[in-house]
Amino acid sequence: MNKAAGAIYVFSRSWRSKFKLKIGAGQWKKKMAEQRNLQFELDRILKKVHDHGLHSLTHKEKKILKQATKSEQMRNE
Fold first, then answer.
1. How far apart are CA 64 and CA 56, in angstroms?
2. CA distance 13 to 77
3. How many of the other CB atoms lie within 10 Å of CB of 38?
4. Does the CA dihedral 61-62-65-68 come out positive or negative?
5. Whole-angstrom Cα distance, residue 59 to residue 77?
6. pLDDT reported for residue 30
7. Is the pTM of the predicted complex or chain greater than 0.70?
8. Which of 61, 37, 66, 60 is nearest to 49 (CA)?
9. Distance of CA 40 to CAs 3, 6, 34, 58, 64, Å?
10. How far apart are the first and last CA of the chain?
């Protein structure tokens, strides 16, 4: 009985590894999509500031800009 359990464990290792890779790849893709969306939003906000001035931003846009600035500063430390 223990040999059968051991064999199942050995054969399932490759399956588990592939499963973990798929989960990791999915999380990575999701994070990259979020980064692209954030960059698009930041570009839009910065264009609005350039065209209409800082006073034209909504509270939400100012919050996004402040969070992005803080995140970039932390990354550069």
1. 14
2. 40
3. 14
4. negative
5. 27
6. 87
7. no
8. 61
9. 56, 51, 10, 17, 12
10. 56
- Residue corresponding to tokens 């906000």: 45
Determine the Cα–Cα distance for residues 36 and 53; give it in Å rounded to an integer: 24
Residue 10 CA to residue 16 CA, distance in Å, equals 10
Are 38 and 68 in contact, with CB atoms under 8 Å apart? yes
DSSP string, the chain: -HHHHHHHHHHHHHHHHHHHHHHHHHHHHHHHHHHHHHHHHHHHHHHHHHHH-GGG--HHHHHHHHHHHHHHHHHH-
Q: Quote the pLDDT of residue 51.
A: 97
Query: Could you report the average pLDDT of every consecutive run of 10 residues in the chain (77 residues)?
Result: 67 71 80 91 96 96 93 85
CA quadruple 51, 57, 61, 65: dihedral positive or negative? positive
- Say which amino acid occupies 37: N
